[in-house]
Amino acid sequence: MNPLTHPIIQAIKARIVLHQIVCGVLILGYLCPGVSDAQESDALNAEFDELTKEVLVQYHTNLAIAENTSLRDPADLEKLLRQNRGAAGALLKFIASNQENLLQNNDPSLLLEAFQALLDANLGGIAQYLLTKAESVSDTYTLSQLHYLIAVYFHRTGQPERALQHLSKIEARNALSEKQSDYATLLFGTLLQDNKKHREAVKYYQTIAPESAYFSQAQMNIAVAYIRQGWWTDAQLAINNALSSDAVNSDPELRNRLLLMLGYNRLKNEFYRDSREAFRKISLESSYSNRAMLGIGLCALNQGDIVGAINAFGYLKKKNENTISVTEAHLLYAYAHEKTGESALASAQYEAAIAYYNGRLLAVGDDDKPLDPGITFEYTEANRDLVEQRVQILERLAAVFPTNSQRLLALRDRFRIYLQKIKEGTKNDNIRILTSYLSQSQYGQAKLFDNKP
C-alpha cells in the first residue's frame, strides 16, 4: 500500500496539518473556545470585574477619614504605589484612597503606572473603572495610552471583543511609541483574523514597515491568512519575507517557528525535499525541535527513505516527554518498520506502541496539561492560568475586605467549578487523542496478522 493512502498516515497527516495551522496561528493569537464555554468565561470575568469595582467604590466611600482632595507630592504617591502594587488588596486600597490625586495630577505618568499595576495584577475591572473616570478629566493623548494598555490586557486575558473595542478608541496614535503603535496594528490585525476577516487583517499587517520589530510577526500572520485561503505561493513569499528581516536575527525562536511553518506547508504541498531542508534548519535546542523532527520523519516516509524515517521517529520515541510529537512517534515508528517488510519486527513495534498508549491512558490525570494545544480548542492553558489567578485574587481580597468576603468567596467557588471543568475538558481531550493512537496501533497490528500467509 502506498504510504500516502495508508489509513494511519492519512489520520496522522490530517492532524499534523491542523496542528501546524493552529499552532502557527497568529503570533499573538489564541484558540477560541466553544460558544457555550466562551459565554461562561465571559460571564465570570464580567462578574469578577463588577464585584472588584464594587469593593473599590465601597471602600472609597467608607474611608474612615474625610477625603483629602489636595494633591499629594507625586514622589510620595509613586513610592506608595510601588510599595503596594505586589498585593491585590493593598493595590485596591491605594487606588481607592488616591484616585482623585492620580486623575488630577498634571503629570499622567503616575496614573499610567498605577493603571499598568492594576492590569499586571489582573484587576481589569478596576482599571476599566479608572479609565471611565479619566475620560472626563484626561486629555486625548493620555486616554490613547490608557486604551492601548487595557486593550493589550484584554487580549492577554482572552477577551478579544473588549480588546478590539479599546484599540478602536485610540484617537492619538502619536501618543504611542513607534513600537507600541506597530504592536497595536499587529494586535488589531490579529483580532480581525480571529474573526475570520483575513483580507482586512492583511491590509493592517502590510502597513508595518520592514524595519519594525514586529515586521516578521506581521508577515507570519499574513502567511497564516494566505494558507487559510489556499494561497500557497503567497504564503511562502510572506514567510521568506519574515525570515529575511533583521528582527529574526535577534529572535532565534521566531526564526524556528517560521521555519516550522514553512516546513509543514511544503510537506502539505508534497515538496518533501524542500520541507525536510526547512525542518533541518531548526535548532535542536528549540521548543519546536520535536515537531521539526516529526516533520523530517514524515518527509522521509513519503520519499521512501524508510531508514531516515525510523531514525527520526526513533529519536523522538526515546524522549520521556508527554508532547504530541513524541506521542505520535511511537505509532509512526511501528508503521515505518512495517514499510521495511519485516512483519515480525513491525508487529513487535506495534505491540510496544499499544503498551505505551495503554500506559499513558492509565496515567492521565486531572492536572495534566493539554497534550496537543493545536487540537484542544475548548480549553487553553492561558485560560486555565487566568482562572487559577482569579481564584487566588478573590481569596486574598476576601481576607482584606471582610464585609465583602461572602460575595467574593461565592464567586471564587464558581471559578473553582469552572476550573474543574477546564481540567476535565483537558483530560477528556487527552484521552481522546491517546485512544485514537491506540486504535491506529491496534489496526496496524491486526492488519499484519490478516496478511500472514
Please tell me about this protein's structure.
The chain is mainly α. It contains 21 helices and no strands. Helix 2 (35-61) packs across helix 4 and helix 11 (215-228) runs antiparallel to helix 12. The protein starts with 6 loop residues before the first helix and ends with a helix. Residues 17-25, 30-35 and 375-379 have low confidence and may be disordered.
List keywords for this structure.
453 residues; single chain
SSE blueprint:
Blueprint: H1 7-23, H2 35-61, H3 74-84, H4 88-104, H5 109-120, H6 124-134, H7 140-156, H8 160-167, H9 178-194, H10 198-205, H11 215-228, H12 232-243, H13 246-249, H14 252-268, H15 272-280, H16 289-303, H17 306-317, H18 324-339, H19 343-363, H20 381-400, H21 405-450
Helix pairs in contact: 1-14, 2-4, 2-6, 2-21, 3-4, 4-5, 5-6, 5-7, 6-7, 7-8, 8-9, 9-10, 10-11, 11-12, 12-14, 14-15, 14-16, 15-16, 16-17, 16-18, 17-18, 18-19, 18-21, 19-21, 20-21
